Amino acid sequence: MKKSPLFWKVSTLIGCILLLLVPLLMVSNLISERASYRDDVEDTLRQSTSGPQQLTGPLIAIPVTEIYYKIEDKKEVEHKRSYLHFVLPESLVIDGNQQVQSRSIGIYDGQIWTTDLTLKAQFSTEKLTRLKGETITLGQPFVVVGVGDARGIGAVSISKINGEALTVEPGSGVSGELPGIHIPLNENLLAMKTLTLDMSLSLNGTGSFSVVPVGRNSELTLRSNWPHPGFMGDYLPVQREISASGFQASWKSSWFANNLESLFGDQEQPEWRHVPAFSVTVATPADQYQLTDRAIKYAVLLIALTFMAFFVYETLTHLRLHPMQYLLVGLSLVLFYLVLLALSEHVGFTSAWIIASLVGAMMNGVYLQAVLKGWRRSAVFILALLGLDAVMWFLLRSEDSALLLGSAVLAIALFAVMYLTRHFDWYSLSQSKRSDPPDGDSSNNMDDDALRIWK
User: Fold this and answer.
1) 55: pLDDT confidence band, cut at 50, 70 and 90?
2) If 0-12 CB within 10 Å is exposed, 13-18 middle and 19+ buried, where does residue 26 land?
3) Residue 376: which region, alpha, beta or left (left: phi > 0; alpha: psi -120 to 50)?
4) Which one of 149, 278, 334, 426 is most buried, by most CB atoms within 10 A?
């Protein structure tokens, strides 16, 4: 078996494929490195402008000081407890209009967005009667509107309760990690049964935009010029329309679904960052780095199919190819991905794919014309390579059908090999050619001829 030329030929081809994994790994690492540069651009934009935004509120916060007594050392000792009591709106309706802009740093792009929001919330003060008592003192109430990053707060143009204009102050007014704004209220307003808050503000950010549905019934309508939204978070929109010019989406939720009222108990620091929210991300579509990384996963398949075609060609003809010739063709296939990565950063992935395919076809066409002894034979292999490039393109663009298409390609390739070699005697390759040695010929010369790989 080990002296069979077929065994050594197949082993050598497998070794060539394993050797080509080294430059493939280097190209794959280069893709990851370039993608990390792109991610650094997004981080730079986030640091220079503002990060993801989560709108929490509006809520009415009332400082409460409660006096209570405990028995200590058989004596009744007076204690005080201070906390914020939050009044959540009975209904919350938010309308947003988002404009996304691309910013470039070098050859890399990132997105920042500005969202103009109109909020309308209705509060009921009936529950506040439970707070009144001889041992309870209420402080000045205020409206809390929290955001994810205070640097993104723009102009607050309208702020009214029951038609009365209010003053907006910086800071959320609550301790803990909740940046935002607050609006002091007149204590006389709490005597009214219903409070209606109307306000509008502009919010800038990068990445995701979220709204916490604090109302008993909450609605959010968002329009944007970005055609690649990423709907995430705890709730999917009940309606959405996506087109090349942007998207429009609507969310709805209630306390029956999110139980948010129980999350805002009488405590100074609720878990602001861990509450359910309506969320959408200004998602970057599959860029050239993601697509190139996915394409290079098919590189071994492309090289193996090319080597298999050469092997079958050798089997059916008397022309023999050296392992170095296999390696040179394999390196040209690896170079395809490097050219694809370099060009895609400047001309786009589709154009880069076409150019890289044509460059590879030209290189192999000139080389194989000399190796295969003719343009006609070379043209057949070049057309086959271009066909494989086209198939890989459809594999990348058809994620849902990638497995089906890939399986079909392998089945067709295997059937072609079986059909072309159906009458071939493989034992003729497995048996070494021996001839009667001439007089005086040594056994070493016979063994050398028997172990020749490409004869």
Assistant:
1) very high
2) exposed
3) alpha
4) 278
Type of residue numbered 157: S
| Domain boundary, last residue among 233, 260, 285 | 285
- Please state whether the peptide bond connecting residue 276 to the residue before it is cis, i.e. omega within 30 degrees of 0: no
- CA 286-282-256 angle, to 5 degrees, is 120
pLDDT score of 281 more than 70: yes
Kindly state whether residue 143 falls inside one of the protein's structural domains. Answer: yes
- In terms of domains, do 116 and 217 share one? yes
Domain hosting 178: range is 55-285
What pTM was estimated for this model as a whole?
A: 0.71
State whether 79 and 225 are in the same domain: yes
Domain count, the chain: 2
Higher pLDDT, 2 or 297: 297
Of residues 5 and 186, which shows the higher confidence score? Answer: 186
Residue 440 lies in a domain: no
φ/ψ of residue 296, rounded to 5: -70, -15
**What does the alpha-carbon distance between residue 84 and residue 60 come to, in Å, rounded to a whole number?**
10
- With 60 as the cut, is the pLDDT of residue 436 above it? no
Of the residues 285, 312, 335, which one is the last residue of a structural domain? 285
Q: Which CATH number do you get for residue 187?
A: 2.60.40
The tally of CA atoms less than 13 A away on the side-chain side of residue 261 is 15
Dmax of the chain from CA atoms?
A: 126
